Amino acid sequence: MFSKLALRNVTRSLKDYSVYFLTLTFGVSIFYVFNSLESQWCMQMLAKSAHYMVESILIFMNVFSAFVSVVLACLILYANTFLMKRRKRELGTYFLLGLPTARVSLLLFLETLLIGLAALVTGILLGILLSQCLGLLTIAMFSAYPSGEAFGLVLSGKAVGKTALYFGVIFLLVMVFTGLSASRARLIDLMQSGRRNEEMRERPLWRSVLTFLAGVALLLAAYAMLLLRGLLYIDPLFFLMLALGTLGTLLFFRSLSGFLLRVVKSRKKLYYKGLNMFVLRQFNSRIHTTYLSMTVICLLLLLAIGITACCVGLNNTIEQSTASAAPYDLTIQNYSGDTVRVDISTRLTEAGFDTDALLEDSLDFLLYYNDPVLTGFSDEEANAAVSLRDYNALMAMQGKAPLAAAALPALSREPVLTGYGAFTGLAVVSDETTARLSPRRQVFAANYRGDKQAAEDALNAAYASPDFHTEETSFHLGTRIGVYMENMGSKILVLFMGLYLGMVFLLTAAAVLALQQLSQAADNAPRYRILARLGAPEKMRRRSVFTQVFLAFFLPLALAVVHAAVGMTAANAVIAQVGRVDSAASSAVTACFILVIYGAYFLATYCGSKRILRENG
Amino acid sequence: MEPILSVSHLEKVYGSRGNRTTALSDLSFDVLPGEFVGIMGASGSGKTTLLNCVSTIDAPTSGSITVDGTDVTALRGAALSRFRRERLGFIFQDCNLLDTLTGFENIALSLTILGTPAGAIDARVTEAAALLGLERVLDRYPYQMSGGEQQRVAAARAIITHPALVLADEPTGALDSKAAGQLLRQLSALNQTGGATILMVTHDAFTASWCRRILFIKDGGLYRELLRGEQDRRSFFSRILEVVSTLGGDGADVL
């Protein structure tokens, strides 16, 4: 009978407290997705050529997971405390009926266990689907080098174990807390929990207008500082800017409802329409207790939007940098080229890489030390020199325009090496001048013919064979695919970190907001009962509930979006030196995540709040 | 004259098969326009059930209730809400006013729900407030008003839409005798000069003595009817007390 009671309570909880379940499920699935990366196809593909990147991604994810699990634990505890508050009367009844404290604690224990198990299973199932979405997103971001491999749904046993372990600990904590709070509760407090004292204060008009103006002024000052100074200078003024922004947001929310009320009140047609008056008053009466949480939620949303958008956007910047870091499919640098020259092409062929068959074009050339007296360029401007003939051949391989002899000596910033070893500038000098410069390095640049991946594999095999290397030579091989994979690794790291943190912050903000709204809805039930008796039709009451929930969700989001837009503009100015944050793509992805998570919470809250209308006919 | 409220053969049964409680059985009465009718009975007599049925909050098991020509037992959903806001006015013992709205706004709420043009609202609220002597509390919130003032604001809210019938459920239940007297004097004035039809449920003989006619309910049926006629309030009060003394408990057991 006892477990039956627990089961019945839980099934009712699933319906009544959907927000709690939603939070648990989302938390589990996000946690699972970012801990199952190891077995994801994109990581396995990456592991082929940039193994160390995979390792660092996994280490980062582990560190972040520890942080995230603390955040989620706090959130779940908060949600649970809230749930218990709502059930005080029910618990009081159990005590009143003479159920021993230990049994009540056991009842709650069983309930938490059941809900936890249900959320764990649902969350992991959702997580498997979500990681598939993440895979698709990653595919969409890597336009070049599509993986030919088919990839399907992956279940990572290790991640399931880790998720179960972490959340098991969190649930255990929750159980201990609820058990403790149940055993320490006093019956009289439980039974009288319905009574509340509420004080209504109305601030004079001039004060809310002044506060509102002050808030807006502070925000504008913070925006101006941000746009003028940019994001990068972290000094006392930077923290002043953050403080101004936070204070401005706080004042904005504190005064907004009073300000709104006054504005609408002066327009009688709007104020006296349907339940507008009631909704506004309702909003205003709550703001004194909620402006603080609205501010925190707005800032959390800002973090979520900012992190997600910047990370997704930055990715496209990195994508562009691949082209400049890899002008050829491969370059082999002979670091001992100043003393020993090697016929690299022949050696490759001997080592098993047929250069005639596998290479489209190639060039074996020398780089010289820059001599400011001969080239006319300082060492800061150019730290290497190349002959005009070699330079024009290199440009021809890249499909770029050659340099005329009349323009010499010239300074070129065109990339000529793939991978490590890029030069700040290259002094292009006449073929005769090079005779007087001392050689620095021998370089072999080439492009593959036909199937690049097959050629790459053959090259790697040849390069690894002992035939290729001798004691007196020291080579460095850079390939375009290698550079690409490396960039892809850092891209994925940035992207995943951003998504992970962004989603957790978003989840936290939305869950806290939803719980607050639901508790307000419960307090509002008697008010809506009066409205029903006065004959307000259900449609009108439903709209009123919708407006209340909508305002609570929309206002912090709206201000956070404005904050983020300004922040992104400033971030763009910084990143503009490297590339550009692709605002369209990043906004789209960010909008999607917000829509899914925030939207789900909004709907759950609205449905939960709407239920109070049905309770009283 | 056509009755404004007509209750005929009303029956309300709670519970299901095997466990039935009859709250109202075969109750019939009429209320004419402009009447001030009181309903009295011991607790458990069914008077609250009757009021809930008339006010469309509860549905009767059988029988019919007609308000101003409309059979309210047949109303559902939107039509029911519409009927409530257009034809009925409510004054309840508690949970009357919305604590987040001022007195003025509480009264105006009935009108905005009805969709009254914004321009007409100020004047009508002021008028109704004057009728109940509420000019000074219009800008206050419910928690800043006395209990009597709160009930008078509720009364103003109930009559401002000119309903066919004002229903009052123990309106003086939470008031001290002075505030109760003031509220009843004003309800009575509303009835006599404003022409409002009022149906009031009470268990208090003093409160009931302000009515023009009283229906006594016992065990779900009509027990007696008392008309004030030309009597003064004091003698009407003592006649009410006489009936009440036979009402509570079973007199036959005592004698």
Rounded average pLDDT of chain A: 79
Q: What radius of gyration of chain B results from the CA coordinates?
A: 18 Å
Q: Looking at the structure, what is the overall shape of chain A? A: elongated
CATH superfamily placement of chain B: P-loop containing nucleotide triphosphate hydrolases
Q: Major sheet of chain A: order of its strands?
A: 2-6-1-7
Helix and strand succession of chain A? HHHHHHHHHHHHEHHEHEHEEHEHEHHH
What is the helix fraction of residues of chain B, given as a range? 25-40%
CATH architecture descriptor name of chain B: 3-Layer(aba) Sandwich
SSE pattern of chain B = EEEHEEHEHHHEHEHEEHH
Describe, in plain words, how this protein is organized in 3D.
The complex is a heterodimer of chains A (617) and B (255). Chain A has 21 helices and seven strands. A four-stranded antiparallel sheet of chain A has the order 2-6-1-7. In chain A, strands 3-5-4 form a three-stranded mixed sheet. With 617 residues, chain A is an alpha+beta fold. Chain A is elongated, with a radius of gyration of 32 Å. With 255 residues, chain B is α/β, with parallel strands linked by helices. Chain B has one domain (5-254): P-loop containing nucleotide triphosphate hydrolases (Rossmann fold, 3-Layer(aba) Sandwich), CATH 3.40.50. Chain B is 38% helix and 24% strand. In chain B, strand 1 (5-14) and strand 2 (21-31) form a beta hairpin. Chain B is globular, with a radius of gyration of 18 Å.
